[in-house]
């Protein structure tokens, strides 16, 4: 009996040590979440610019829910865009993005399946944190079906498109001035390159729910060749603790698109940005 008790105590100590090491390994890439709760759903209308005319192109749904990833408590975020038949003959838009972040906001997994025009590609990123470093296993499936794998380890944190946006929703911009820049490395299925978010000040935006909101305007840039920064998207997020995306302006390879908020559910904080 005494021997069994000792063995149990040793197992408990080893489990505690494992948990401590896991937390320490995630510590460098953690962040506080003040924006969203355990079940948030945001619906959008999509518009596509075709020959200088904006047409209704489809819908998008962003969901963030409490989940687990291989036994680790996590937030699961997904963005699903669906085009309609009206513009499919010109441009097919079928994107599905998924990510898991720990409850401490450390990236765990990312996937993007994108059908843009006639091309379909898949990107995956698997994160781990051995020895306090950030290791990523990257997977790309090309349009021709070929698989490409690579694995790299970084001393600093790296992020994918979804995880950095989730983190950015908890930034505190109260002291920011126009032009404030947040730099970070961005990864996808086969590359890592510099990216940044630039704060462009405050403005008012009318959503497709019929309301106006005070918003913070932020623009997301990527630098793929080490020379020129490319404007990827602008986000207009509510000027309150939720930082809800009210409008998104996206620069696509085949044109440009906009998304306007239609409805929201499961919001974590009072929506004080709504203009009555």
Automatic annotation (TrEMBL):
<dbReference type="Pfam" id="PF11306">
    <property type="entry name" value="DUF3108"/>
</dbReference>
<keyword id="KW-0732">Signal</keyword>
<dbReference type="InterPro" id="IPR021457">
    <property type="entry name" value="DUF3108"/>
</dbReference>
<feature type="signal peptide">
    <location>
        <begin position="1"/>
        <end position="27"/>
    </location>
</feature>
<protein>
    <recommendedName>
        <fullName>DUF3108 domain-containing protein</fullName>
    </recommendedName>
</protein>
């Amino acid at each position: 009996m005494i021997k069994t008790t000792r063995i149990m105590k040793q197992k408990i100590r080893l489990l505690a040590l494992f948990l401590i090491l896991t937390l320490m390994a995630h510590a460098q890439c953690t962040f506080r979440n003040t924006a969203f709760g355990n079940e948030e759903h945001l619906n959008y209308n999509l518009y596509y610019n075709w020959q200088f005319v904006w047409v209704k192109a489809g819908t998008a749904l962003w969901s963030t829910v409490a989940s687990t990833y291989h036994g680790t408590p996590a937030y699961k975020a997904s963005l699903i865009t669906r085009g309609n038949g009206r513009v499919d003959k010109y441009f097919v838009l079928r994107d599905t993005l998924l990510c898991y972040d720990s409850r401490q906001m450390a990236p765990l997994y990312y996937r993007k399946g994108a059908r843009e025009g006639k091309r379909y590609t898949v990107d995956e990123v698997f994160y781990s944190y051995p020895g306090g470093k950030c290791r990523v296993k990257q997977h790309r499936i090309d349009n021709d079906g070929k698989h490409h794998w690579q694995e790299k380890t970084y001393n600093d944190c790296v992020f994918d498109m979804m995880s950095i946006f989730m983190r950015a929703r908890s930034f505190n911009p109260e002291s920011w001035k126009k032009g404030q820049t947040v730099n970070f490395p961005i990864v996808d299925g086969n590359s890592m390159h510099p990216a940044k978010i630039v704060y462009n000040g405050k403005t008012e935006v009318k959503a497709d729910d019929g309301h106006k909101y005070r918003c913070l305007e932020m623009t997301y840039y990527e630098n793929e060749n080490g020379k020129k920064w490319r404007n990827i998207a602008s986000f207009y997020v509510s000027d309150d603790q939720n930082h809800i995306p009210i409008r998104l302006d996206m620069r696509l390879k085949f044109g440009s698109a906009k998304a306007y908020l239609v409805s929201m559910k499961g919001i974590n904080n009072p929506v004080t940005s709504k203009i009555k």
